[in-house]
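Quick one from the shared queue. A colleague (R.T.) flagged Metallophosphoesterase as missing a structural entry in our internal table.

Convert sequence to structure tokens.
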Amino acid sequence: MIVLVFVALVLAAHLYLWHRTVRSTTRPGRARKALTWGLVGLVLLVVATFVGTRLELGRWLAWPGYLWVALMFYLVVFLIVLEVPRVVASVLIRGSERRSAAAKEPVPVMAGASAPPAAEPAAAPPMSRRLFLGRTTAAVAGVSALGTVGYGMTSALGDPVLTPVRVRLPKLDPRLNGLRFAVVSDIHLGPLTGIGHTERIVRMINGLRADVVAIVGDLVDGSVAELGALAKPLKSLESRYGAYFVTGNHEYYTANGPQEWIEELDQLGVRSLRNERVEITHQGAVLDLAGVNDLNGEATGDGPDFGKALGGRTPGRSTVLLAHQPLQVEQAAGYGVDLQLSGHTHGGQIAPFNLVVGLQQPVVSGLATVDGVQVYVTRGAGFWGPPVRVGAPPEITMLELRS
């Protein structure tokens, strides 16, 4: 069902683009046919890119395919924004054409009067006003889309923003004041990232001198055989009490499932919390750090088990939960969790998708309280699909606990 909806949206977007960037900008002829077939080719490129990357085939399609997806999206956005001024201009043009036609109506000749000399036929204008309007609209949208995608690529491929956040937990043991978490999610090692992406993230996390490193899902977009080398720098992560990981939805999209990555991360010194918890002892006080699997694991019997991860805790002890999707707080709230750390949303990644994400998740980015539980959602340090981020730069968070 999701695949059919995706294909329908892609076809609808390209049909709209054909009307606004081909039909409205060309006269019938070879140019229109060539542009039409070019747009058909781009439709096939989008489908081939998503299918190929999911099956770990045709990775060479990733760059052109995903960049066109971003351009397609922003072309549609800017063309829709331009619809109102385009309609207004079209109405004014039609009015002008009617007035011009009325002014050119022949003057009746009285009997016996000599007819006025025939006017020389005017040369046909090289371009109609409507064609000029169509080309102008398409050009404005094209330049705007290219500029936006260019800016978004600079943001997505640049250094993540370091975001300091202080969270006050009323029940926190005062001895845990100042305990610091380096929170990162959605690194998305994949066909468009190199080992430099991982090395930069590790270097920036190590520079924070955190007590705990929390990797909150969606680390990879492929198998260990394909991407294992890109994950090797994680072995150099430094923190006082260790690095911890929970699965995201993309770990369940890989050909072999998440288990091979759990084992690989264990070899790299990153512990996976699989519906379990550990005790973090800091200055003589103890904090419960728990982690649950992503909701997408339910289809294979590997979903979240909050009872297993959070049941039977020591009364009065503060608990921080790692859960990839902010939506999981709805279940965590019943277990007395103090703070949930999540990712998944990318902060929307490319505006105005942040508005759509807000319909599916209770928090898009930042700190909020849901059902009495504080939830911090990081925008993620990588990207998925197009290497573009607009309005949601990549992020690594230094989160400090306070009582």
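The chain is about 40% helix and 15% strand.
The longest strand covers residues 161-168.
Added to the table.
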